[in-house]
């Protein structure tokens, strides 16, 4: 067991013939992910390695029975790609694309909510269930199967933490990157709920950062719903207000979104918050 | 990206929002000519990208063209919070009977666009929100329905706009929302929206922030960027697609990934050092990008040591190492450099750097400690 992706995932890659799409398709196939097809409009009939390319998501789904799609298409076409996946009956969409305008994401999120489709991302490293499926760009070799669920708003910081766990012999059930944008598909609360209900997950690591109030919402959810131990790290204690720290969502505005507030909210509900990422393994039970 | 008051208001006008018929002056003589053309009392307003212009003396009333020229003379060249005033907006002075606040922004928590209004116009809305939140009215906008007439009636009712002005208010609120959509704005505000002596509504001051992620589909707005409130190094970084923010500390940081970059700064601070910057070289950075990034870090004279923290995924450690070596050739830095490279091709990367006699570390904590020591003994 794991959450969201596993060996039953039948994945298609939207934007498979692009630079990122083709490179990561190879990586995902090499990891053992069941990549059943790809989509690039106008390139149907071609192959990327042993993966067939289709013109539309509908054609890909009909031919392959895909149940998950990953999106590598450039930011200005990404919203359209997400709508296409949702309209073609894909229940789980992972958007790696960075730089999608926020007004596009507001419409995308409202549309997906109506359809009951789950989106992870955008601007995220994707999902990794060690030993089963890698859906995204996380380096597979740093992860190992085990009982820790990892959820994070960032990319390389997630790798740092997963690597620290693996080096200490602590494996992961699933690693989920939810992305660093202000409006995204899946929140900390969503993933915490999935980990809580997942038999393979015994403890949870949650990596947050400055900006927004998702960590505070997560703290309230942990108090109400989560029985498994949660360890956290919040990046951006030294970040000045009013400055966007790389991620569109990582900004302290109008006094909202400071690391101090988030740490206080989490500690108040019994979450152990690490001072630095390498300390996380020490705080697990 | 922030827009100036005049840029915002001229944009509003394209969406049928009534604004004062003012013009921009860069010299006192132009100010005189504009005031003369307007023919009545005018307001001379400094155009700088910071709040609190009025308190700093950057907004003045002038009854005659001569006075307008004198005020412009005083305001042009003025320093407001570290920014030099190079432009003034000359607006006809409005007779203010009442004023309200009207803004549209993104409500992250609700994942919706939100219309915000308050009867407390003309003052800092964040302060109103903090001290008297009951005076703020919020209404979410469904992206598929858009702004509806009844919503604006409800808001008008709650912030004290008379029903004679409701039709106008609807047009202004709808215009502002259309402007937000057409401009990819993450914030558009009219503060204050004034009820004039003639009994009509007028957008006297305006502000807009454009989504940085949308600038390549908003070329007209992107061309309006004013980089004067941005440190030169940040402008250079932006043009090289690097994300760089200058801070006040001593340890320069070069990291791949925004979250890891923030965490690296935090760990530096934890071990008693102070970060000189935030810098994310992004995913898959090539040697050239790394070299530019190092030049930018070293252009800050406060930097006493540089810490490289690279976790290779898409980014390959040997590419970064090559970039560091190339940059060292060009820049010839005289500060100690500490590198921690892990992940894809880490072995090759470390071998390259060992030849350059750089201090290397295995973990982030170790690297941060070494950087702090190096900066302190420098």
Topology:
The complex is a heterodimer of chains A (285) and B (378).
Chain A: E1 11-14, H1 19-31, E2 35-39, E3 47-48, E4 51-54, H2 57-64, E5 68-71, H3 75-87, E6 92-95, H4 102-115, E7 118-120, E8 126-129, E9 133-136, E10 145-152, H5 156-167, E11 172-177, H6 188-196, E12 203-209, H7 214-225, E13 230-235, H8 259-268, E14 272-273, H9 280-283
Parallel strand pairs in A: 1-2, 1-5, 2-4, 5-6, 6-7, 10-11, 10-12, 12-13, 13-14
Antiparallel strand pairs in A: 3-4, 8-9, 8-11
Helix pairs in contact in A: 3-4, 6-7, 7-8
Chain B: E1 2-3, H1 5-13, E2 23-25, H2 28-38, E3 42-46, E4 59-62, H3 65-75, E5 79-80, E6 83-84, E7 88-92, E8 96-107, E9 112-118, H4 125-131, E10 136-141, H5 149-159, H6 166-183, E11 185-196, E12 201-203, E13 206-210, H7 219-222, H8 232-239, E14 243-246, E15 251-255, H9 258-270, E16 277-280, H10 287-298, E17 305-312, H11 317-331, E18 337-343, H12 346-355, E19 359-360, H13 364-377
Parallel strand pairs in B: 15-17, 17-18, 18-19
Antiparallel strand pairs in B: 1-13, 2-7, 3-4, 3-7, 5-6, 8-9, 8-11, 9-10, 11-12, 11-13, 14-16
Overview of this protein structure:
- The complex is a heterodimer of chains A (285) and B (378).
- With 285 residues, chain A is of the alpha/beta class.
- Chain A has two domains: 11-120, NAD(P)-binding Rossmann-like Domain (Rossmann fold), CATH 3.40.50; 138-283, Rossmann fold, CATH 3.40.50.
- Helix content of chain A is 33%, strand content 22%.
- Chain A is built from nine helices and 14 strands.
- Chain A has helices at residues 19-31, 57-64, 75-87, 102-115, 156-167, 188-196, 214-225, 259-268, 280-283; strands spanning 11-14, 35-39, 47-48, 51-54, 68-71, 92-95, 118-120, 126-129, 133-136, 145-152, 172-177, 203-209, 230-235, 272-273.
- Chain A has a seven-stranded mixed β-sheet with strand order 3-4-2-1-5-6-7, sandwiched between helices. A seven-stranded mixed β-sheet of chain A has the order 9-8-11-10-12-13-14, with helices on both faces.
- In chain A, helix 1 (19-31) links the parallel strand 1 (11-14) and strand 2.
- In chain A, helix 3 packs parallel to helix 4, helix 6 runs parallel beside helix 7 and helix 7 (214-225) runs parallel beside helix 8.
- The radius of gyration of chain A is 18 Å and the shape is globular.
- The relative contact order of chain A is 0.12.
- The model of chain A has no long low-confidence stretch (mean pLDDT 96).
- In chain B, strand 5 (79-80) and strand 6 form a beta hairpin.
- In chain B, strands 1, 8, 9, 10, 11, 12 and 13 form a seven-stranded antiparallel β-sheet that branches. Chain B has a four-stranded antiparallel β-sheet with strand order 2-7-3-4, covered by helices on one side.
- Chain B is elongated.
- Chain B starts with a strand and ends with a helix.
- Chain B has three domains: 21-92, 2-Layer Sandwich (Dna Ligase, domain 1); 96-222, ATP-grasp fold, B domain (D-amino Acid Aminotransferase, Chain A, domain 1, 2-Layer Sandwich); 231-377, 3-Layer(aba) Sandwich (Rossmann fold), CATH 3.40.50.
- The mean pLDDT of chain B is 92.
- With 378 residues, chain B is α+β, with helices and mostly antiparallel strands.
- Classes of the chains: A alpha/beta (285), B alpha+beta (378).
- Chains A and B meet through helix 4 and helix 5 of A and helix 4 and helix 9 of B.
């Amino acid at each position: 067991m794991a959450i969201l992706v596993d060996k039953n995932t039948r994945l298609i890659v939207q934007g498979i013939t692009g630079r990122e799409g083709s490179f990561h398709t190879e990586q995902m196939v090499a990891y053992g992910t069941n990549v059943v097809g790809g989509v690039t409009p106008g390139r149907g009939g071609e192959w990327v390695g042993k993966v067939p390319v289709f013109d539309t998501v509908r054609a890909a789904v009909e031919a392959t029975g895909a149940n998950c799609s990953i999106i590598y298409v450039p930011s200005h076409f990404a919203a359209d790609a997400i709508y296409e996946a949702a309209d073609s009956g894909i229940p789980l969409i992972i958007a790696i694309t960075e730089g999608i305008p926020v007004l596009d994401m507001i419409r995308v999120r409202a549309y997906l909510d109506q359809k009951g489709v789950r989106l992870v991302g955008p601007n995220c490293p994707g999902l990794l269930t060690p030993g089963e499926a890698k859906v995204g760009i996380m380096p597979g070799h740093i992860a190992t199967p085990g009982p820790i669920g990892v959820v994070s708003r960032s990319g390389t910081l997630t790798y740092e933490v997963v690597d620290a766990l693996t080096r200490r012999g602590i494996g992961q059930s699933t690693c989920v990157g939810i992305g660093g944008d202000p409006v995204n598909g899946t929140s900390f609360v969503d993933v915490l709920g999935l980990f809580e209900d997942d038999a393979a997950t015994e403890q949870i690591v949650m990596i947050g950062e400055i900006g927004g109030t998702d960590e505070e919402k997560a703290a309230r959810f942990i108090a109400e719903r989560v029985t498994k131990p949660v360890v956290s790290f919040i990046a951006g204690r030294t970040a000045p207000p009013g400055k966007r720290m790389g991620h569109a969502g990582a900004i302290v505005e109008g006094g909202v979104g400071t690391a101090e507030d988030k740490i206080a909210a989490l500690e108040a509900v019994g979450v152990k918050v690490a001072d630095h990422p390498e300390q996380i393994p020490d705080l697990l039970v | 990206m922030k827009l100036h008051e005049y840029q915002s208001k001229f944009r509003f006008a394209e969406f049928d929002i009534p604004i004062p018929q003012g013009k921009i002056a860069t010299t006192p003589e132009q100010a005189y000519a504009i005031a003369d053309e307007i023919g009545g009392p005018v307001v001379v307003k400094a155009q700088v990208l910071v709040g609190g212009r009025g308190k700093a003396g950057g907004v003045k009333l002038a009854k005659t063209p001569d006075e307008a020229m004198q005020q412009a003379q005083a305001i042009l060249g003025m320093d407001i919070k570290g920014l030099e005033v190079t432009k003034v907006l000359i607006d006809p002075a409005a007779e203010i009977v009442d004023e309200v606040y009207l803004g549209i922004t993104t409500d992250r928590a609700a994942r919706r666009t939100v219309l915000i209004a308050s009867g407390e116009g003309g003052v800092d809305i964040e302060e109103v929100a903090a001290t008297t939140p009951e005076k703020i009215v919020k209404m979410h906008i469904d992206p598929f329905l858009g702004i509806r007439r009844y919503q604006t009636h409800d808001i008008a009712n709650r912030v004290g706009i008379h029903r004679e002005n409701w039709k106008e208010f609807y047009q202004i609120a709808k215009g502002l929302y259309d402007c937000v959509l057409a401009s990819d704005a993450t914030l558009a505000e009219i503060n204050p929206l004034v009820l004039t002596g003639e009994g009509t509504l007028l957008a006297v001051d305006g502000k807009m922030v454009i989504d940085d992620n949308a600038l390549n589909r908003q070329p007209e707005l992107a061309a309006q960027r004013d980089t004067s409130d941005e440190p030169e190094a940040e402008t250079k970084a932006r043009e090289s697609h690097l994300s760089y923010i200058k801070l006040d500390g001593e340890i320069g940081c070069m990291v791949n990934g925004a979250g890891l970059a923030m965490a690296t700064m935090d760990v530096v601070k934890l071990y008693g050092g102070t970060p000189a910057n935030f810098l994310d070289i992004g995913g898959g950075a090539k040697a050239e990008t790394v070299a530019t990034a190092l030049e930018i870090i070293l252009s800050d004279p406060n930097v006493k040591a540089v810490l490289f923290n690279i976790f290779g995924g898409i980014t390959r450690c040997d590419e970064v190492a090559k970039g560091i070596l190339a940059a060292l050739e060009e820049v010839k830095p005289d500060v100690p450099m500490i590198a921690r490279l892990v992940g894809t091709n880490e072995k090759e990367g470390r071998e390259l750097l060992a030849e350059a006699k750089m201090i290397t570390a295995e973990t982030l904590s170790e690297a941060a400690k070494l950087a702090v020591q190096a900066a302190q003994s420098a």
